[in-house]
Amino acid sequence: MFKGILCLVVILACGGLGMIKSQTYSQRLTELTGLTDMLQMLRTEMSYRKDPLPAVFSRISAYKDTVAMDILWECGLRMKESLDFKQCWQEAVEIACAESCLTEGDLAIVKDLGLQLGKSDVQGQASMFSLAEAKLEGQIREATKDKESRGRMYRGLGFSIGIVIAVILI
Fold first, then answer.
1. Which of 44, 49, 74, 121 is the most exposed place for a label (fewest CB within 10 A)?
2. Given phi > 0 = left and psi -120 to 50 = alpha, else beta, which region is 168?
3. Do residues 103 and 67 lie in contact, with contact meaning Cβ atoms separated by under 8 Å?
4. Distance CA 154, CA 158 (A)
5. Which pLDDT belongs to residue 26?
6. What is the largest CA-CA distance in the chain?
7. pLDDT, greater one: 24 or 50
8. Any long-range contacts for 9-14 (C-beta under 8 Å, 24+ apart)?
9. 72-115: per-residue pLDDT in tens?
10. Coil/strand/helix, residue 111
């Protein structure tokens, strides 16, 4: 009886660990989608309202609670203290994405966005947003494939390891 309960606990624990690991792939996909939403909102706000960047950032960041909106919030706060936008953006990305599931490739796209943001006219901004969105769409396709293949693999692997351990215990 005790061995049976122990085996069940081991199987469920290993399966749970596999599920937790597979969740990182879903989280990355959600965060990338949030970044594309942020870009669309920024494009709209910057082309129609033409407010200063700190005002735009604070207004947009209030819409949702995502990593993308945290970047805008942090950057807006830093811009009140410093005039160097590039440095403010880099620090905001590092702080907001410290606990995220975004890869280095994802972060490179976001950091590159900060290099060009606010430096050209409306048409230049529109082309810059289009380029960033196209790059993020590629990352979203990659994240979707990872979620389907690697996510399923980790879930199955977790339960399989749990079953192997349970068989060894018996």
1. 121
2. alpha
3. no
4. 6
5. 87
6. 73
7. 24
8. 10/162, 10/165, 10/166, 10/169, 11/159, 11/162, 11/163, 11/165, 11/166, 12/162, 13/162, 14/158, 14/159, 14/161, 14/162, 14/165
9. 888 888 888 876 778 888 888 888 878 888 888 888 888 888 77
10. helix
Distance between CA atoms of 100 and 90, rounded to whole angstroms?
A: 15
How far from 71 is each of 8, 55, 77, 91, 146, CA to CA, in Å?
Answer: 43, 14, 10, 9, 25
Gap between the Cα atoms of 98 and 71, Å rounded = 11
- Indicate the residue type of 154: Y
One-letter identity of residue 54: P
Q: Is the pLDDT of residue 32 over 80?
A: yes
Q: Look up residue 26 and give its two tokens.
A: 């879903």
| Residue linked to tokens 């811009």 | 79
The pTM (predicted TM-score) of the whole model is 0.80
- Residue 25 to residue 31: CA distance in whole angstroms: 10
